[in-house]
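In this supplementary section we document a worked example of the pipeline. Step one takes a protein sequence of length 411 as its only input; no multiple sequence alignment statistics are reported here. Step two produces a three-dimensional model, which step three serialises into structure tokens for compact storage. The input and output of this example are shown verbatim.
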Amino acid sequence: MLRAIWSSYNDLPNSFPSSSTETRDYVSFFLFWFGSLPAIWFPVHKIRHLFTAKAYFVPAAGIAFFIWAILRAHGLGPIVKQPGKATGSALGWAMVKGIMSSIANFATLIVNDPDFSRFARKPKDALWSQLFTIPIGFAVTSFIGIIVSSSSAVIYGGTPVWNPLDLLGRFLEGANSGERFGVFIIAAAFTLAQLGTNIAANSISAGTDMTALLPRYLNIRRGGYICAIVGLAMCPWNLLSSSNNFTTYLSAYSVFLSSIAGVMICDYYVVRKGYFQVRDLYSARKSSPYYSTFGFSWRGYTAYICGILINIVGFVGAIGRKVPAGATYLYNLNFFCGFIVASAVYYLLCRFVPIPATSDVWMEVGDEIRNPSVAYGADDDTEGASEGSPERYGTKGDEETGIRERKLGNF
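The serialised model returned by step three reads:
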């Protein structure tokens, strides 16, 4: 954006010659970082207007960038007719790695989804919107990115420019005023998209988790600002020094998130079969079926660590160390390996050391709740109906629920 306005911005003296990032890029990063801080202040229900603007502006700019790149490459034909260089097993594993990178790109949305879906009025409100937008949105975005990156090899020759922002910088070379304005608009869309991603995938999610960890001292807003400080301390500009660093980071990210997703999904769909005692979810009493010693579920953490261990040797190989070929192949399937191992371990632990408040049949409680109060002693719809009973939730037949009655306590 700044280069589109002031071309001399690209000629800022580099004060960090030994670094992979130049002074110009550092300045741009800090401007964006400071500009992101006010957006963290707003509560979740108000920041949705930012995402509404993003939903209209960013796709339009992405399509414009896509068309512009094709026109500069003199059509789609020269782009798609470029000869492939990978063959055989190399091509197959390249496709697998691409799939894993794509999954890793939205793996954070898989585990952070409850931070947003809990604001839905009904479970189906969150289901249908995500069922279509996530796979279609990421597929279209990936397609545009591949074509635009491939077009750079046709336009300029040599190695494709993998970073779209670098390609926009190339578009500024010898550009007239109209082209500079076009680059500014597309770069502004990238800024808005990144701001929305930071808030949705980082700030709100981190704030929600920290609120659960220290509710007396932290709220979502404070947690979001802590996340911003941590994000600055981890020197994220190093991740963009090369495409290899970026994809390695995405793969490592997936290693940890796949284990979390495996435990969460196995717990809800397989172990509990959708059944929750809603009021007890908000209880800190030791008699609650969801109470854990010091807030840690040993079953969940054991499964989580096992899901990471299956990929850890391959990850060491990904950062340059020599490891067995088998570990590399497993790591190429890192998300699936971590997910399956964590799910299996958690299921087996719950089979041998059962947890309370589960169901033998599918018993998800959603739209049937007539009184959503979670306060103890509150007047219920049905006088005398106990927590989790069919009378309270409007389900049929006490005999059909198959709810296991177990003694509640520490676990």
